[in-house]
Amino acid sequence: MTMTALGEPCVLLKLGEIVLKGRNREVFEQRLRANIKFALKDHEVDLRQRHGVIAIFLPAGTGVDVAETIATRVAEVPGIVLVHLAWRVAKEPSVVVKAALELVRETPEVARRARFAVRSRRRDKRFPLRSNELDHLVGGELADAYGLPVDLKNPELTVFVEVDRDEVFLFTDGRPGQGGLPVGSSGRGVALMSGGIDSPVAAYRMMRRGVRVDFLHFSGIPFTTTESIYKAYALARRLDAFQGRSRLWVVPFGKAQQSIRASGQDRLAMIAQRRLMLKTAAEVARRQKASALITGDSLGQVSSQTMANIVAQNSATDLPILRPLIGLDKREVIAEARRIGTLQISELPDEDCCTLLAARNPELAAKIEDLKAIERRLDAEELAVQLADSMQAYKLD
Ligand code: ATP
Ligand code: MG
Hints:
VC0802-like; eight-stranded mixed sheet; binds adenosine-5'-triphosphate
């Protein structure tokens, strides 16, 4: 693409809920800018805050392909609702018109004569045209040049013209960002991550609410293969795109599972092991100064997730257990897993450690007293500390 009339490419970011923040807004914006800088650490960029919009300026002469790469990357950073690849042009009405013609010339919307609208905004009142005058000027030229019908109510193509202090920004409809809040603005959590479909989506959902998430995986080794560890690693890496600096810990859990099985209570083994996972995760959270645990539980999905069994899990630890998928349908979770790029990893075959304890006739309403009896025999509190001691850390970058 040669777009000589278009000036310099840049990327504009529209912020989501941050704009609803009152006096804290500056803190959220600072956090978001830091997260964006980290996500773009391999690029030379200059961030500018402009009236609720963050502009990413690139060195002079940067190609549109690099700007595209940056727009795609930054669309993964939570806290942003819309990402526009935009053009900075001189503050001259004739230049703006020329650039607008160029901007849409090769778009599919022009080829199919799509209904369009121009939306101008004049932030610098010294600019000679008011916003509605600019709409008319640019819209008229586009309609004439390409024979496009104007539709202000329900356009298929919108050309945005924003007159700023030093330049005019020109862009069309953007791509969606993740929305939500910047990671780090809501504290830390430890996500219990299996190799399944649900737990990565749960971790993602909490990241999008501003939680910095560390990942904890329980592997059945030495009684299972290491496949589930590779999966957990691949999942954590994929999820790292949304927050950066992620950490994954893997707990060798096979021997502890064997002890649970030796207690002879087959029907309770699954819930007992879930509680041991939660106790271990709580110990990890304490060491890492995280304030909550995160799981992929969804009410009623499997026998370990009946109302009674979820209640029985809550008393395993004093830490709050966040379950962002509790009210979701499996189809909704799968759709989100596909969108965030974890589904294809979760669908790889593995030997999940849970299958070691799956009972033919699992308890649907475990009693706390029965679980506590198993835990006394196991010395579960001490075992959780030992398990946390034995975990292995993986770096993701
Ligand atoms: P998922 O798809 O996340 O594995 P699931 O529908 O298979 O979930 P369960 O197997 O009952 O449900 O697990 C419930 C939750 O317990 C998981 O979402 C996860 O948070 C946690 N969990 C289960 N197995 C493991 C594991 N091996 N390592 C870490 N966390 C686990
Ligand atoms: Mg599972």
